[in-house]
Amino acid sequence: MAMSFVGSFGRGQLRMGWGRLNRCGESVRLEKVLQKGMAFRWREIDEGRTWAGVVKDRLVVLRQEAEEVEYWLEPGQEPLDETLADYFNLRVKCHKLMKTFAEKDENIAMAIPLVHGTRVLRLDPVECLFSFICSSNNNVKRISSMVNFLAAQYGRYVAEYEGHQFYAFPTISELCDKATEQELRENGFGYRARYIVGAARALQERGSEKWLLQLRGENRNQVSEKLVELPGIGKKVASCIALFSLDKHDEIPIDTHIWKMTVSKYMPSLKGKSLTNAVYDQIGDHYRTLFGDMAGWAQTVLFVTVFDDYHRGTSTSKKRKTEKRKAQKTEPGLKAEEECFGEAIPPKEEDMYFSPVDSSENVTGKLEPLLHSEENLTMSPSSLLSPSEDSFDGKPKKRKPTKRRSPRIQDMANGAC
């Protein structure tokens, strides 16, 4: 594919060309795919317009221009069209797929305009697997910190951009050789430390990266059965790995968001039940019957819609709480009943993201458009460990990486790194 340069980035001393990725008519909205719980190491540079990350051991800088995605390319570098087309799953014709989903389900029809440009990524299986081991009882910010720690501490340095250092995610061999449970615990991974070290060793025994890549050729049930044999991987984590990196487009990850929405909108008969393995499979089968062999893409649309709506609700809640505090300061005689906003405050993000369902706690909330309900739906605590055991600040406390030269991207392309 011929590459045309459409300008220069104009930052610092480097002159760069921008090449258009999106030549196939498929819409990609970076903010809808890089921040929604699939990938965790992209850095937002320009308030949602420009992003930087590492794909296949290369620094990649992307920017959004209306419906187009452009990527940064220095003259002499190999184009990234094929690499990024694979990463964004552009072989899947999402526009036609969404039209088919909308004809089958009114909830999807309602959601699609809100999440235009959402896609399922095709991630590196190794990074995806360890990212979702980190996701257990966790939130996006802390998952990102943990995954970035693994890359910076055990992976290969790639380049520096806009003051940020970027690293390749470590190979399974590098994790086995360098990562220890003690060091990970000292850096806030909590019980996940044992799973990361154990999973790396188990993967190495099975054939490392080659074994994982072979799973792309096996069916969904076989993949799930093999993944859950690894330390730290249950059904939901296995579903995420299978959908986002192993081409299992009919896999349905069920987290708190999807569980609540399913009970509210699709399977009310599950109200009051626990999310057992049997119920998990029952929910997945329901969506596969409804949406077919690409049901995982429908689930992603629903997840992003509810995820966005939850955060809009959280932002509104924070704004109202701020206004209430101001009113209390300026009107000290304000009565308690006048301070009520008339709706429940949504739970913290830590209680929402990637956490299992626990029927012992109920939190009332109103999430539009897919979660509007008069019911009190189940929410779980964010962690089963005490803060002292499971705190993470993202800063290495031992074995700080030595300072390394920050090469130009041209150096990186020539193998200088």
| Total of helices | 17
Strand content: 5-15%
Structural class: alpha+beta
Radius of gyration: 22 Å
Binned, the helix content reads: 40-55%
SSE string: EHEEEEHHHHHEEHHHHHHHHHHEEH
- Strand element count: 9
Tell me the strand order in the biggest sheet.
1-5-4-3-2
- CATH classification class of the largest domain: Mainly Alpha
Question: Would you mind describing this structure in some detail?
Answer:
Residues 1-15, 314-322, 326-391 and 398-417 have low confidence and may be disordered. By secondary structure, this protein is an alpha+beta fold. The strands form three sheets. Strands 1-5-4-3-2 form a five-stranded antiparallel beta sheet. A two-stranded antiparallel ribbon has the order 6-7. Strands 8-9 form a two-stranded antiparallel sheet. The chain folds into three domains: 1-91, TATA-Binding Protein (2-Layer Sandwich), CATH 3.30.310.260; 97-120 and 250-329 and 343-384, Helix-hairpin-Helix base-excision DNA repair enzymes (C-terminal) (Endonuclease Iii, domain 2), CATH 1.10.1670; 121-248, Endonuclease III, domain 1. The radius of gyration is 22 Å and the shape is globular. The protein has 17 helices and nine strands. Helix 9 (192-206) crosses helix 10. The longest helix is centred in the last third of the chain and has 36 residues, at 295-330. It has helices at 30-33, 81-87, 94-104, 106-111, 125-134, 140-154, 172-178, 181-186, 192-206, 208-214, 220-227, 235-245, 256-266, 277-291, 295-330, 349-352, 409-413; strands at 17-20, 43-44, 50-55, 58-65, 68-73, 157-161, 164-167, 362-363, 377-378. One of its GO terms (cellular component) is nucleus. One of its GO terms (molecular function) is 8-oxo-7,8-dihydroguanine DNA N-glycosylase activity. It is an enzyme of class 4 (lyase). Keywords: DNA damage, DNA repair, Glycosidase, Hydrolase, Lyase, Multifunctional enzyme. Residues 328-337 have a biased composition (Basic and acidic residues).
